[in-house]
């Protein structure tokens, strides 16, 4: 037999366990982002939950405004605001149980804070005192990840490990639209699907990766469509509709907890502010577009719904505002104190035991600091 | 005759000009990376290129460093000269697989038939108050990879000259751009014709007799400052700016050390397994009989790059360099 004939005869035999999905349709996302607010579905939503979401949205917005102000005062090196995206942030935190884990990206301070992390500690990365200010185990929140999409495989690994140990823990991993182009995103989705790991991927599609619009990021009909190729369901949701994001995420979390495997959720939203305070957004987008999205503000959407249904009176509104104001005042006051940092800490956590070389360098710095002290006196 | 007023330009502007001139001179030069088009790059180094040469020549890519460099490999295979921008030092790491497994060794793997004229621009180093993953000095990884040239300018003129040379090179070149010098100006006249620097030559930035500071990139101005300060202590320091880490200019470096008899290597990246070890070993091997003292290193600590509020303790500054210079009085100590 010639090589060509052999090739012709070759038929790949799938491994016995492999079952192709004969019908990918259940995996496909809806054609339009799923909405609750302003639709009939809203009647089904739990009023208590909606009020909680509302209070958290108001608080989140205030946090964004305060943190942005702190950059102007030089108290914060940089702040990537999530104004306009608060619904995603808040719903992410509220969709999880206490035992679940959150894997945030660098823009997700609000989700981190909504999960219970001290607002000041959530900002240390951006303020510049420590890379991570909180204990990841305390609230089950991984460090904010700056390299994009790199935290996604971590979420898969953690969820997989939890399942191996018999714990019904779910990991929710957050990434931006730009981050979905990274290899790590694809590898994470693939692992998650193959292992049927209890993970939920939340893509906040805010239209831009710094200056690059979605159209230059992907040719897919939606980012949620990407799920299908890996063999997991994709869900498309209005990212400014807190009730919808919460419902979709809570469903996905439940599905994962019950052994159903991973889900990819794309929340369609918009970044109202520039990428960070260091970015000039006028170079790549016009005001008109921003204004359109201001009219689709997540707080207003929810407020309108709650008010129309008589679930939110002036007292409740001002209570939410007061609580947010108190949080902001506390944040401001504590951020205005100078961080007390011990330079010797540079060597504290490089290894469990410092190497002899690090000890030498530590002694050098100590001597320098002592000399500095003496010089000052 | 009228004297032309010098218009000082920044290093970033000189890099832009180098890209523009290279693109104008050779239609096969293509720029690609994250945000390089409409925005002109986060440091504005590619500003105006998309408008001038079109989006096919200056392309906003999807956000994927491995993809950027990997597609650049294919483009180079087909006769283009890609210049890729890695947005920040630590974001180049996803591309290391492509860099190390393919870019660096394609010439070798194909017995010379498929050279890859790719330029990889990497803004690197600290001192700008950047958050985590925005301040790494990754030169040791690049230097340890055979098949790559590694250059790093410290002056505005060199930024132009070295980037042009990198783009013209038939081999892959990693251009490490010291981001804290992006806005530094010197008397470079953008109106004048510019020279292209051959890759592989160091420059003596300041002549001196009593010891040599061997340095590069962001540490060059620091060493020049230290050399000025050392005059008060009676030291006349020579400052050698390597400009090119690979290939390494043994000749210029050793000529200097033979003259002065003492040397300190200064860089920002960690000392353990860092560039200074290689440099000190080379100098010792070649100049042993001329040395009055061991070659010393002043480097960053061997720690992950610290948060901005502590970076001044990490970065080698004038005092640490002067301390090392004082330790060069080896005879007196022993
Ligand atoms: C691996 C990697 N490459 C590049 C960057 C630089 N960078 C920071 S944010 C950003 C855009 C991210 O866009 P997206 O994923 O859509 O998230 P968003 O900022 O919109 O929340 C880029 C390119 C990075 N942080 N990590």
From TrEMBL, chain A:
Q: Which InterPro entries match?
A: Alpha-ketoacid_DH_E1_comp (IPR050771), DH_E1 (IPR001017), PdhA/BkdA (IPR017596), THDP-binding (IPR029061)
Q: Where is this region: Disordered?
A: 1-30
Which CDD domains does this one have? TPP_E1_PDC_ADC_BCADC
Domain Dehydrogenase E1 component, residue spans: 68-336
Record key words, sorted = Oxidoreductase, Pyruvate, Thiamine pyrophosphate
Protein name, entry field: Pyruvate dehydrogenase E1 component subunit alpha
Identify the cofactor(s). thiamine diphosphate
From TrEMBL, chain B:
Question: Enzyme class, one word?
Answer: oxidoreductase
Q: What is the E.C. number?
A: 1.2.4.4
- The molecule here is called 3-methyl-2-oxobutanoate dehydrogenase (2-methylpropanoyl-transferring)
Which residues does the UniProt record annotate as the domain Transketolase-like pyrimidine-binding?
Answer: 9-184
InterPro entries in the cross-refs: THDP-binding (IPR029061), Transketo_C/PFOR_II (IPR009014), Transketolase-like_Pyr-bd (IPR005475), Transketolase_C (IPR033248)
Sorted alphabetically, the keyword list is: Oxidoreductase
UniProt source species = Streptomyces asoensis
High-level lineage: Bacteria, Bacillati, Actinomycetota, Actinomycetes, Kitasatosporales
What CDD domains does the record point to?
TPP_PYR_E1-PDHc-beta_like (cd07036)
Cofactor(s) listed: thiamine diphosphate
SUPFAM superfamilies registered for this protein in UniProt? Thiamin diphosphate-binding fold (THDP-binding), TK C-terminal domain-like
Tell me which SMART domains the record gives. Transket_pyr
